[in-house]
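Key result, reporting period 2: structure in, sequence out.
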């Protein structure tokens, strides 16, 4: 990367809480959020306690799909945490790079029902502005007066992490002084969940929803779909220091790759994910042995966990402590990499690795050290892995401040 990137602000909206303190407490306590969704007849991890009217104003909230609502609230928390004032900053030097896998399917599905039952003239004129993926970054820019580079990254479930990587590049190229980076997703609609179910990707532990998401466990049977948003404020370390900002941690490297193998399955040897991991370490000027913690993609599917576990055992034979926070949050799709980047920043900042919730018996074919309890660890260098359908991989390297 050529520069040090400081993380000066953090914001989260997830199924375990609205706000960073609530999230960190929940993942460290290993409190799962999965519940049975009677409407969609599926397990899911939904954001609760989120009052969009109170947080955004009733009129504004009505004109926004939930995936944008989540991002605006997470971004506001991150900006406040960074002690930045949007009304006073040079907006042309502030970029927004956010990721999502889908956009606003809730809006599309509801308006399609209107189209079928009431006709085209009853469809909302806000249909497109509400559901288009690019509106995620567009709305955040409008809310906070960020007139610099503005884009949405779509690399499926690697989108959030890819966005952080792209933001780091913008800072390195001096295109921006501040970037709001992360991801947001709200895909828990009947049609979307039906599609994942038909693929055989979802857990069917309907009678035990809280234990359904169980990364690396011998009895895992699929992921639990979730929703939420994570936003990080990124600045060049020198700029953060000059303004006296509090730095949570540093993003010191990133690696991106493609499996170029299958539309949904990971390349079975993990060669693509290995390439991204090694590229992140090279970017950080580090070696595999420097890694002390990994926040794994760890979806709780049979194929992903086996492939990722084998890759980590091969590339990091010194056995750093691995966790998957998806046991608590479920799989947040395009927001997953951003939310997990925030958790990894907090792990580095606090010297604490959260446990992997619901892991009761490690799959005997997985030979890595997975955190069974929340542990105090001197996190000198941490990696967070994100992989997406289509074989798109992103790995971030994070170090303490």
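The corresponding designed sequence is given below.
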């Amino acid at each position: 990367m050529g520069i040090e990137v400081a993380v000066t602000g953090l914001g989260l909206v997830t199924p375990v809480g609205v706000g960073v303190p609530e999230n960190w407490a929940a993942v460290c306590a290993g409190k799962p959020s999965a519940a049975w969704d009677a409407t969609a007849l599926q397990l899911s991890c939904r954001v609760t306690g989120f009052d969009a009217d109170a947080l955004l104003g009733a009129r504004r909230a009505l004109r926004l799909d939930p995936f944008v609502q989540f991002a605006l609230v997470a971004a506001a928390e991150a900006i406040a945490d960074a002690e930045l004032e949007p009304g006073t900053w040079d907006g042309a030097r502030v970029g927004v790079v956010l990721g999502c896998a889908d956009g606003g399917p809730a809006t599309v599905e509801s308006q399609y029902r209107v189209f079928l039952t009431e006709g085209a003239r009853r469809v909302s004129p806000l249909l497109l502005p509400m559901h288009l993926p690019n509106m995620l970054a567009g709305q955040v820019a409008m809310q906070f007066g960020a007139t610099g580079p503005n884009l949405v990254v779509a690399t499926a479930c690697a989108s959030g992490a890819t966005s952080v990587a792209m933001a780091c590049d913008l800072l390195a190229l001096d295109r921006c002084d501040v970037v709001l980076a992360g991801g947001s997703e709200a895909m828990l609609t009947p049609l979307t969940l039906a599609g994942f179910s038909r693929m055989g990707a979802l857990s069917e532990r309907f009678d035990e929803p809280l234990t359904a998401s169980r990364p690396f466990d011998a009895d895992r049977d699929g992921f639990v779909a979730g929703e939420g948003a994570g936003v990080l404020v990124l600045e060049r370390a020198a700029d953060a220091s000059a303004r006296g900002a509090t730095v949570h941690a540093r993003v010191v490297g990133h690696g991106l790759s493609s499996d170029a193998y299958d539309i949904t399955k990971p390349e079975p040897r993990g060669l693509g994910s290995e390439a991204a991991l090694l590229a992140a370490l090279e970017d950080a000027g580090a070696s595999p042995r420097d890694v002390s913690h990994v926040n794994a993609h760890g979806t709780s599917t049979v194929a992903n966990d086996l492939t990722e576990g084998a890759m980590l055992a091969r590339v990091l034979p010194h056995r750093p402590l691995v966790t998957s926070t998806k046991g608590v949050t479920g799989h947040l799709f395009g927001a997953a990499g951003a939310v997990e980047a925030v958790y990894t920043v907090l792990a580095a900042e606090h010297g604490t690795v959260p446990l992997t919730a619901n892991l009761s018996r490690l799959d005997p074919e997985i030979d890595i050290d997975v955190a069974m309890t929340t542990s105090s660890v001197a996190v000198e260098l941490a990696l967070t892995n994100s992989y997406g359908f289509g074989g798109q991989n992103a790995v971030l390297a994070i170090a303490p401040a």
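The mean pLDDT is 96. The first strand starts at residue 5 and ends at 14. This case is discussed further under Risks and Mitigation.
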